[in-house]
Design brief:
Shape: elongated
Oligomer: single chain
Distance between the termini: 65 Å
Strand order of the largest sheet: 9-21-20-19-10-17-18
Helix content: 40-55%
Number of strands: 21
Largest sheet: 7 strands, mixed
Length: 667
């Protein structure tokens, strides 16, 4: 995009802006990879034109001081035309379609001032308003290209078995009924049903499940999932255009389109204000004809329109937003524009994903049950001896809980069951209940599973010696954050793809009462829709691809940036760039304070207009006085808006209490 004008923006987002233009326009050199992202203030075209207008206006002022009146007039006209080009064309096009906004008032004010011979004042209005538009554009800039990250989850090639032969084809060429062959480490190209083979399937990108899912014949699997150690034959049940990832893309695109039409604060105020001002101005002109002095009242009407031009209102909100967004970014909170900032300040319901958001997505050993005379240390060492070369998340948790590591010999994997091997001449087995009989530890295993943990059994020379419970634990600050949100009046809910036992167990520890589990991405989106429809502004906080539809469907999407995927960060309106969940209530507090400052500026701007209008109508103030008052007001609201750039320090993280062992555990 280079040199795109207001017209293109109006066509893309008709009726959104109260002013002349809507989306940020950037100017880049030929050959740049431009995706519409605005990284620097100077890239916004309105800012570029506004600065040019300001330079011309200053040059005209200096020319006037030097006594060069002709040069002053020419430079003032040039400043007026350059500044006015940022909002006048759009305002006129929208007027032709029956739409009015702040831009129209500014246009009438500039034209009226020019008609009264006050070209310098008209140029000043155009200069200030073009800068305000540019600042608002900059604060509203968002990067919405993150859906490309979804494509990385689909392999470029898929192996299918046709007529007894394996063929490598593009995923787009898959048809219903094809038999895909998925080898260890490969991603599934589309959705399907397992026809043969067993494996541990990493489905975290789609379902949010923190522990790999054991799958076998007859079970459904989804595009983007990563195969573990076994070879699978999967019957295709969805084409590339209609699989799980494709549905995520469709949902996100639809929700982003819905949010693109959201009106901004200035628009909502200007909608009734602008027509009212125009009606009053027209009545003033009519009164002039009735009272016998048309030119006097025409002049007063034009001064009134200038007085009613909400310059302070137009610049106060974007300046406040820019200051606030900049301050938040320095605290690790990325807020994508003024609309997102306003929404962040309105949120009253917070929906939290579990895996990677409330938890770290790093499973840990939380309990070990043993059979006498074996100790906890022995059981963990035997388990670790089998897992020492494994990359499975359960293996990492067990290894982290063991101080003395020795590798077992002849380790072999039983797909979908567990591991076998030998150590010091003894035969070891580690696996899921069912493959190994839980025997006297059955009650302990059931208790572990009720607590949301994955239980594995350890056997030595055919004798059961213990059970190990592994669970993705809460972040140490999670309960503190939930308590703080609830104390500030927020309703908190958990949304997760994990099973109900795990979800409810962790929700109790976090202090969350409202829990939704076993959810697919489209389920999360639907629940967010219901929460939003209940009449309370809703935020969704997540970190993965599976959260993208819900992030887009919410009034506000918040991504855990450091742990999140690109699509989550790009789909969300706010990204927490660190791992500390306490950034979330800090972000809400910051946004609510910013919103209060915005409302203060809006109230002051409207009060100013309310005072200036009657003073202009009755001839108490002339055009120059009105412009001067507006400029003083702008300084005031800008100074007040800059206060939003002040942030408070994050509270000190209180050390979490030592987590007690599960009740009844033998440790």
């Amino acid at each position: 995009m280079s040199g795109t004008g207001c017209q293109d923006r109006d066509e893309r987002e008709e009726g959104v802006s109260a002013c002349g233009c809507d989306a940020p326009v950037v100017t880049k050199g030929h050959g740049d990879d431009d995706d519409g992202a605005v990284e620097h203030l100077w890239q916004v075209r309105d800012i570029q034109l506004g600065l040019v207008s300001g330079v011309l206006l200053l040059a005209g002022f200096l020319a006037g001081l030097a006594g060069w009146e002709a040069a002053e007039l020419v430079l003032s006209w040039a400043a007026l035309l350059v500044g006015g080009s940022t909002f006048v064309p759009g305002a006129l096009r929208k007027l032709a379609k029956g739409k009015v906004g702040v831009g129209l008032l500014m246009t009438i004010g500039a034209v009226g001032a020019t008609a009264l011979g006050q070209v310098e004042e008209a140029a000043t209005l155009a200069f200030l308003f073009s800068l305000s538009e540019g600042l608002e554009d900059f604060s509203l800039a968002k990067t919405r290209h993150g859906l490309r990250a979804l494509l990385d989850l689909v392999p470029r090639e898929a192996t299918v078995r046709r007529n007894g032969r394996d063929e490598v084809i593009a995923p787009d060429d898959l048809v219903l009924g094809d038999l895909m062959v998925v080898r260890p480490g490969e991603r599934l190209a589309t959705d399907g049903v397992v026809r043969s083979g067993r494996t541990a399937l990493d489905t975290s990108a789609i379902t949010g499940e923190s522990i790999p899912m054991e799958v076998g014949p007859g079970e459904q699997v989804f595009a983007g999932s990563i195969n573990g150690s076994g070879v699978l034959e999967v019957e295709v049940t969805a084409t590339a255009e209609d699989n799980s990832l494709a549905r995520i893309v469709h949902i996100v695109e639809a929700e982003q389109s819905r949010k693109g039409a959201t009106q901004r604060l200035a628009d909502r105020i200007a909608k009734p204000l602008v027509p009212g001002i125009l009606i009053v101005a027209a009545l003033t002109v009519v009164a002039g004809f009735l009272l016998g002095d048309p030119m006097l009242w025409l002049q007063r009407a034009l001064v009134m329109v200038v007085a009613a031009s909400p310059c302070a209102l137009a610049i106060s909100v974007p300046v406040t937003a820019v200051a606030s967004i900049g301050a938040a970014s320095r605290r690790g909170i990325l807020i994508k524009g003024g609309a997102a900032l306003e929404a962040l300040g309105r949120v009253r319901t917070v929906a939290l994903d579990k895996t990677g958001t409330l938890t770290r997505n790093q499973p840990a050993v939380i309990d070990v049950a043993t059979i006498d005379p074996f100790s906890r240390t022995q059981v963990l060492e035997w388990a670790a001896a089998l897992e020492v070369r494994s990359e499975h998340p359960l293996a990492k948790a067990i290894l982290a809980a063991t101080d003395h590591l020795r590798a077992a010999d002849d380790v072999a994997a039983e797909v979908g069951a567990g591991l076998t091997g030998t150590l010091d001449g003894r035969t070891l087995r580690l696996g899921r209940p069912g493959w190994i009989d839980a025997g006297p530890l059955a009650a302990d295993v059931a208790r572990m599973q009720r607590a949301g943990a994955t239980a594995v059994l350890v056997e030595v020379d055919g004798l059961l010696v213990g059970a190990v419970a592994v669970r993705d634990e809460l972040r140490p600050e999670a309960a503190e954050v939930v308590a703080r949100l609830r104390s500030h009046g927020y309703t908190v809910a958990m949304l997760t793809g994990d099973n109900r036992a795990t979800a409810h167990a962790l929700a109790v520890e976090a202090g969350i009462d409202e829990v939704y589990a076993d959810l697919r991405p489209e389920d999360k989106s639907a629940i967010i829709g219901r929460l939003r429809d209940a009449g309370r502004a809703t935020a969704m906080v997540g970190d993965g691809v599976n959260d993208a539809p819900a992030l887009a469907a919410a009034d506000l999407g918040v991504a855990m940036g450091a742990m999140g995927t690109d699509v989550a960060i790009e789909t969300a309106d706010v990204a927490l760039m660190g791992d500390d969940l306490r950034l979330l209530p800090h972000a809400f507090d910051h946004a609510r304070r910013t919103r209060r400052i915005m409302l203060q500026n809006v109230a002051a701007s409207i009060a100013l207009i309310s005072i200036l209008i009657p003073l202009a109508v009755f001839g108490i103030l002339g055009l120059a006085a009105v412009v001067l008052v507006h400029e003083i007001a702008e300084v005031f609201v800008i100074a007040n808006g800059v206060r939003a750039g002040r942030t408070t320090h994050l509270p000190t993280l209180t050390a979490p209490a030592t987590r007690p062992a599960l009740q009844g555990a033998a440790v």
